Amino acid sequence: MTTKQVLPLIAQIPQSIVGFLESSSSLWSSSLSKTTQAHARILKSGAQNDGYISAKLIASYSNYSCFDDADLVLQSIPDPSVYSFSSLIYALTKAKLFSQSIGVFSRMFSHGLIPDTHVLPNLFKVCAELSAFNVGKQIHCVSCVSGLDMDAFVQGSLFHMYMRCGRMGDARKVFDRMSEKGVVTCSALLCGYARKGCLEEVVRIFSEMEKSGIEPNIVSWNGVLSGFNRSGFHREAVIMFQKMHRMGFGPDQVTVSSVLPSVGDSEMLNFGKLIHGYVIKQGLLKDKCVISAMIDMYGKSGNVYGIIKLFDEVEMMETGVCNAYITGLSRNGLVDKALEMFELFKEQKMDLNVVSWTSIIAGCAQNGKDIEALELFREMQVAGVKPNRVTIPSMLPACGNIAALGHGRSTHGFAVRVHLSDDFHVGSALIDMYAKCGRINMSQIVFSMMPTKNLVCWNSLLNGYSMHGKAKEVMSIFESLVRTRLKPDFISFTSLLSSCGQVGLTDEGWKYFSMMSEEYGIKPRLEHYSCMVNLLGRAGKLQEAYDLIKEMPFEPDSCVWGALLNSCRLQNNVDLAEIAADKLFNLEPENPGTYVLLSNIYAAKGMWTEVDSIRNKMESQGLKKNPGCSWIQVKNKVYTLLAGDKSHPQIDQITEKMDEIREEMRKSGHRPNLDFALQDVEEQEQEQMLWGHSEKLAVVFGLLNTPDGTPLQVIKNLRICGDCHSVIKFISSYAGREIFVRDTNRFHHFKDGICSCGDFW
DNA sequence: GTAGGGTTAG
């Protein structure tokens, strides 16, 4: 076409376009004022109704983040096109104003406009960012109906959206239909499966990549590493790491932080130190994840020095790093230091998140700081941090440990409200908590209401019934477990054997002991042997128990010998007791319990010289029995009661009640030589009396505070001693109370002065 | 115009 031919055509171009052409240079200019000027010129020339011009104007305003102006332009167009909307949607998405972006889209849709292949990727990106799976799915439908779902960009963003929403199944369907699959998409899929713990898929995709000529890069390798790590294959993760290194992929900060958890779990401290050296050389110690993972590795390997040194050196006050530090400290028993650091972090107004709170709560609950754990759980909510599916099973053991039923119940309520009660971890922790608080019926209800149960849930229930001495129930639950597709493990058998021991079911005990290895291929561990020794010993078959110990394929530990010694006390067998005690003196020379048990056995036989000699031996070693300690919960507050402690605010009332009970006992002819007024306990300083002291306090306190007698008090951690039992028995018959007493992990139920189970009483 | 990886809590 010649110039001569073109010129008449140009003359026919409408005036509006001429206006646009005049202003076009300003529209692509670099300042907002020029855009405003262009806008004015467009309005003057009447070009504002032109879709293309308006769209450019919208884009230009958006470019300067003037979204309101852009939207005004959009709204002024009488008949807007997809393109006009998409300019604004694109800009809003880019500015991360996702909700507004979706809002503009819905306006576009209500104009009857169908999104095109340019808008769709933006929309999917928005849904991915907002995890708006349902909206995304609907837009996916729109793209299918309009036949746009075969577009590579649409597919790519759709795939990403499903991945971000954690919908691996949907993502996989899109992936399988994708026309172009590159290393990026494959790695993304691989990493997605790794996060979900689908190791098989991870490995399959990785090998298929190689087969189909897609060269895996460092991201793919990192995904494989994290897959092994997440699925608990720690050794394998380390091996892959070494293989990757050999193949010439230099580990980066992501590689290091992916493999370090596995190094820690395999307790390969030296290898961890090697990585530490590499990290320093490569200058990766600036990365927060690397530091957290490094602290975590030292913590898991028991290297407290490593944790503290690294934390002090890096001086990085970042939430993740601090969380790893808290966990590392409490994992190694330094819970006081952890609490101290946590306080410091709070003072420094650090941004503590749900992991921070959960870490310190779990640290407390695992290190005997149960009351602190409950207090922190409350404080966390006051601080506006919402407990999640990890927090709840971390704090529930604290409720169980101190039989704080009220706290446990309200946590259960919380879990139900936030829809977490079906979670395996939460459910199992609830079952355990209720059992430890004496409410085995609630454990049963929680269990029955769970839509699906894993082995941990079953084991919690088995252990609960076992704790309550209900062997028949344990066996019947075990039968139900066997009928499921789940296979019982060594923990299931521990509950079975322990409950058989409690009620003297020797034959059943042997049956399960052999069933464990013969039918299920589970090798008996130390705890199974202790259960068997206990079972045989209680049944009076001490020699058989001792023979079993001698036949053990590995060295018996203190629990096994302790079980034998305890049985010897029940059967008054001095010879075997001396053998067992001798082993225990070697294994745990610091444990005063062994001396006391042995001396009791001597005393029962009237061997007073031996009694004296054992007592002297104990004293010469400077050993003392731990003071008794109990907890009791009254109206949602947990009270700790320590032997010899008079600091309780109601000590006078308690003493008064004690006197009253003592008087009643005298009148009704109960063991008149027993005296359990507090002052007498202290004056006499008799060990037996001291042991019973705190429990009496708890029982009496419970009576005082529950005048209507409705709540059954669960008293934890009772030390076995005759004096205290008599008190509990007496109170139970005298006051007509049902009293539950928990002796470490076993329950005794008193009604009308009779204990329903156990020969201790 | 789309698009990939890591740490710390049970």
UniProtKB/TrEMBL annotation:
Q: Does the keyword Repeat apply?
A: yes
The record's InterPro entries line, in alphabetical order, gives: DYW_dom, E2_motif, E_motif, PPR_At4g14850-like_plant, PPR_rpt, TPR-like_helical_dom_sf
| Keywords for the protein's UniProt record, in alphabetical order | Repeat
Annotated DYW domain ranges read: 669-761
Q: Where are the PPR repeats?
A: 81-115, 151-181, 182-216, 217-251, 353-387, 454-488, 489-524
Q: Which domain of life is it from?
A: Eukaryota
Q: Which PANTHER family match?
A: PENTATRICOPEPTIDE REPEAT-CONTAINING PROTEIN
Which family does the record claim for this protein? Belongs to the PPR family. PCMP-H subfamily.
Please state what the protein is called: Pentatricopeptide repeat-containing protein At1g20230-like
The species this protein was found in: Camelina sativa
